[in-house]
Amino acid sequence: MTDYTVSSGNIFADLGFTNAEEKLAKVKLASLISDLINERQLADEEVAIILTIDVSQVTNLKNGRLSGFSLEKLLGFLVALGQNIYIMVSPKAETVSSGTIKVVRQSCA
Predict the structure, then answer these.
(1) What is the pLDDT of residues 60-100, one digit of tens each?
(2) Taking a C-beta distance cutoff of 8 angstroms, is the pair 74, 33 a contact?
(3) What is the pTM of this model?
């Protein structure tokens, strides 16, 4: 029988990375940005103009190389792509040791 560990839902936390919540949030934001780019069938050059970044940075973004992008920058990209950002702050549950960051895409209804 194969041994395995059940994921916490955050691969970065499971692997022991510091700032695991932030890293996962960045990945989720980048994924949303990539989805929007694909939905609109935008060429990398068009994306670079919209986001005011170099085409090489667009490539990095789309390939998940996110070290050069802060959470703030990624949020700004979503705004540039016509998305609204809502930030909600709420107390953590008493049974949980630390707070969390969650990224959720709300669809238009």
Answers:
(1) 999 999 999 999 999 999 999 999 998 888 887 888 777 77
(2) yes
(3) 0.81
Cα-Cα-Cα-Cα dihedral of 61, 65, 68, 74, to 10°? 40
Note the pLDDT tens digit of each residue in 29-67: 999 999 999 999 999 999 999 999 999 999 999 999 999
With respect to residue 2, please indicate whether it lies within any of the assigned structural domains: no
CATH code for position 97: 1.10.260.40
* Structural domain range at position 77: 17-109
**Whether 92 contacts 99, CB under 8 Å:** yes
Residue 103 near residue 29, CB atoms below 8 Å: yes
* 6 domain-assigned: no
Which of 107, 103, 109 is CA-nearest to residue 39?
107
The answer as to whether 39 is a domain residue is: yes
Domain count, the chain: 1
